[in-house]
Amino acid sequence: MARFSGVPFLLVLLACVAASSAHRAKQTAFVAGLTNKTVASTVPSNGDVTPYGCFVVPRTVGKLRRDNVLINAAEPVGLSTALVVLQSGWVIVGNTPTTDGTSNTIMRGSIFVLDAFGTVRAEIKNSFINGPWGATVAEFQSASIAYLFVSNVVAPANGTIVRWTLTDIMRADDRSSRPPRFTDPTIIADNIGAVLDPAAVVIGPVGLGYRNNQLFVSDEVHNRVLHFNNVIFRGNPDTNPAVVTSDNALQQPIGLTLTPNQNQALIVNNLNGNLVDFTIPAPGTQLATVTVSNFGAGSLFGLAATINQNGQKKVYFVNDGDNTLNVLE
Ligand SMILES: *[C@@H]1O[C@H](CO)[C@@H](O)[C@H](O)[C@H]1NC(C)=O
Ligand SMILES: CC(=O)N[C@H]1CO[C@H](CO)[C@@H](O)[C@@H]1O
Question: How remote is the CA of residue 151 from the centroid of ligand 2, in Å?
């Protein structure tokens, strides 16, 4: 009797495996059934017209309203899609300036920290900041500490990801609060590849998405999306990340966001006007491709997926073709 006791157990195990792979195969694309709509023009009163990053405000704090979308343009800060809003209301913006809008004059730049009223309260500038190009954040129940991940694309960085530990995070709607401290910079990924480009300024790692100690990064140079493990704790660069997906519908993946349930990711392409929806973790499956810009190459940058307080799916993205903020909903 004893020697058969493993059989039903094995069958149950196989049944579970079959059920979970069937479940995986049946996963519906987050963007299935959504249609595009223009939300707003991004041409502000100062006349700058080029939107890059895009982030959905997680909580109402100061002037920030939950579910509203923040975007950054190339003025007053330099080029970058790096834009993060902490739950406490601090806004973190990458700044990679050029004097003429081309890669010929690109500089290493800085990171700005704004309070919840939009006032610049700090500028971080040091040897770990080399053309901040994309960013994401890991936040926890206790909002006094967070991990910020920033990609860098200007030499000497050849496509790095730096993890910052943000400490002493106070409320950003109190003018007496000090901005978070940027501590313990650690290079957790190196040599992803970053090359100056006459059209796109830089081709390199742009979109970052975080879930559960894992980081997903769009790698434009190799036309793929990478999956890094143990990103909260590692003390050195991960030289062997897994590949989530590559080629097929990918055409230089630029902005990246995770879906709210965190089992899919969305990227937009630099070389055409398409958005691609695929499963995570690695190895992932491409589930859907949607044309979201009729302006083709160079029109898409940042995007952000959310389910709002009314339970509606929204995928916000900027379009530099007509300088608008758009939504798939
Ligand atoms: C930069 O990264 C690319 C892509 O991974 C690699 O081929 C190249 O050798 C790296 N360059 C340097 C100077 O390390
Ligand atoms: C890029 C794209 O697909 N744009 C479409 C958005 O939706 C309108 C109609 O609602 C279409 O005319 C656009 O072509």
Answer: 32
Residues of the chain under the 70 pLDDT cut: 1-25, 44-49, 74-78
Percentage of the chain modeled with pLDDT above 70: 89
- Cβ of 248 below 6 Å from ligand 2: no
Q: How far apart are CA 71 and CA 36, in angstroms?
A: 18
Whole-number pLDDT of residue 244: 98
Dihedral pair phi/psi, residue 249, rounded to 5°: -80, -10
**309 DSSP 8-state letter:** T
CA 101 distance to own-chain centroid: 23
pLDDT the model gives residue 188:
98
How much is the pLDDT for 142?
78
Q: Does domain 31-328 have CATH number 2.120.10.30?
A: yes
Ligand 1 atom nearest to 158, measured from its CA:
1
| Pocket flag, ligand 2, residue 324 (CB < 6 Å) | no
Query: Would the CB of 293 count as within 6 Å of ligand 2?
Result: yes
Residue of the CA atom closest to atom 12 of ligand 2: 36
Nearest to 206 by CA among 192, 187, 185: 192
* Distance in angstroms (rounded) separating the CA atoms of residues 305 and 273: 17
- What residue type is assigned to position 180 of the chain? P
User: What are the tokens at 274?
Assistant: 């398409």
Mutational test site, ligand 1, from 130, 161, 191, max ligand atoms within 8 Å of CB? 191
CA distance 166 to 183: 6
